[in-house]
Amino acid sequence: MNDEQRWASAVTAAGAAYERLPAGTGAELDAVIKQIMGHKQELVELALAAGSASICRGCGGECCLSGKYHVSVLDLLSYRIAAADPVAPNFGAAPACPYSGMSGCLMPPRFRPMTCVVFNCELIEGRMGPNERAALYERENLLREAIAQANRIAGSRLDRALLLSCDA
Ligand code: SF4
Ligand code: SF4
Questions:
Q1: CA of 134 relative to ligand 1 center, distance in Å
Q2: C-beta 61 within 6 A of ligand 1
Q3: Does 63 contact ligand 1 (Cβ within 6 A)?
Q4: Which secondary-structure segment (H or E) carries 105?
Q5: How many domains does the chain have?
Q6: What confidence tens digit (pLDDT) does each residue in 91-119 have?
Q7: Helix%, strand%, coil% for the chain, nearest 5
């Protein structure tokens, strides 16, 4: 199975697993996924306030070269909650991240994988004061707690890599 087939299979399997959830569980999970999307948005906004847009443009996205397995089952489900089409990966772009394009990440901040929104290199964190860094770590903790809660609700590791989850 190549990456395109693996991705398509995992997307189908993740959707089917979500549809099998009891209605109450699905609603509970939807609410937590909305919280997760909010935390991701806030984390990216904190980095943007520190100048990440121009810093990362200048860097060329060095930390994005290992993004292939960052998208999780949970990340994919957020597109369902938002009634949006999931990101269309380009696995032929390697070594660039398959979820990136000429203008950077193809995903709006609220859909980006956890690894991507919690990592800021020293070029960005170095531009933050103590209060900004504290706010960043607080949001990261909230995000991690919400992801753990989503796992508990679903009774499975929704934060596992989508591409390694063809039997989701
Ligand atoms: S976070 Fe740092 S390493 Fe990653 S793209 Fe931005 S500047 Fe480059
Ligand atoms: S998903 Fe987006 S933010 Fe994450 S590594 Fe790929 S391009 Fe970078």
A1: 20
A2: yes
A3: yes
A4: strand 104-105
A5: 1
A6: 998 889 999 998 899 999 999 999 999 99
A7: 65, 5, 30
pLDDT digits (tens, 9 = 90+) for 22-51: 999 999 999 999 999 999 999 999 999 999
Kindly report the protein residue whose alpha carbon is nearest to atom 4 of ligand 2: 116
CB count, 10 Å around CB of 84?
12
Can you give the residue range of the structural domain that contains 153? 3-164
Question: How far, in Å, is the centroid of ligand 1 from the Cα of 24?
Answer: 40
Residue 145 in tokens: 């707690």
105 pairs with which residues across the strands? 100
The answer to whether 68 touches 153, Cβ cutoff 8 Å, is: no
pLDDT exceeds cutoff 70 at 168: no
What pTM value is reported for the model? Answer: 0.94
Q: CA-to-CA distance for 140 and 90, rounded, in angstroms?
A: 28
Tell me how far the alpha carbon of residue 72 lies from the centroid of ligand 2, in angstroms.
12
